[in-house]
Amino acid sequence: MDENELAADFEEHRARLVAVATRVLGSRADAEDAVQETWLRLAGHSGDEIENLGGWLTRVTGRICIDMLRRRTSRGEETLDDWSRVEPVVTEDEERPEDAAELADSVGLALLVVLQSLRPEERLAFVLHDLFAVPFAEVATIVGTTTDASKMLASRARRKVQGTPHPTGSLRERREVVDAFLAAARSGDFDALLALLDPDVTWHRHTPKGHTVRIGANEVLAAVRRGDPERLEARRVSVNGEPGILVWGPNGKPMSLMSCTVADGRLVDIVSIIDPVRLATMDLPAR
Predict the structure, then answer these.
(1) What is the pLDDT of residues 146-176, one digit of tens each?
(2) Got the DSSP string for the chain?
(3) Where in this chain does the record put each SnoaL-like domain (predicted)?
């Protein structure tokens, strides 16, 4: 097979490999690097003929990802519960024909945050088996353990992930809830805000000082009360395929990004990046 044919075959698998790597690494840029390294290894492969290209590429990408995760932790670049490397995909939140396809390939920011809290081996085993249906025997060869041990890794990860809220209702309905939340915040209608917030809403906050988690509608209401809607501009955007909110400060620069998980007509989970320096490095919609 010549290089052009090999490249064409590789491209057929690229999207799936990037999806796997993004979920494992939390960063689209890191995922692209991992997949590019996979291509280089394929192009330089001189061993036995590859009978199952998709399986071979998944194994190689998985091993590259787990090596990257292990290097992060060994160098102190990442600790458990550190999601500073998670890179949300933020776009205009508009009805488009391609929405259905993009949503099918997206993963909510709330889930990415939980995945970042898993150990490298747990993360890879869960993503490969539970999200991409890779058999445990194959997962074991990628992680470097036994089939039974890979099952235990995925099981531990599954228990941690089970509490992650999932959106319900149509995308349009979820957008309407976020729009109603914005309108109530602007007008100071706290009764309406309370009706739109689940009593036990979980609020993940990433600030320059680190990651904190607050529980309860009153925590969110207190933050809204401290804000000054006359000096801020906020509107709905799409964050990893789900409705979110982008806020600009008086200087016209982004100061906060929120990803909202809406279930049964209420906000049940909010992930916020309240870090102007980090936001300035992100590709965000214009004001």
Answers:
(1) 999 999 999 999 998 887 888 999 999 999 9
(2) --HHHHHHHHHHHHHHHHHHHHHHHS-HHHHHHHHHHHHHHHHT--SS--S-HHHHHHHHHHHHHHHHHHHHHHTTS--TT--TT----EE-----TTHHHHHHH---HHHHHHHHTS-HHHHHHHIIIIIT---HHHHHHHHTS-HHHHHHHHHHHHHHHTTS----S-HHHHHHHHHHHHHHHHHT-HHHHHHHEEEEEEEEEEETTEEEEEESHHHHHHHHHH--TTT-EEEEEEETTEEEEEEE-TTSSEEEEEEEEEETTEEEEEEEE--HHHHHTS-----
(3) 178-261
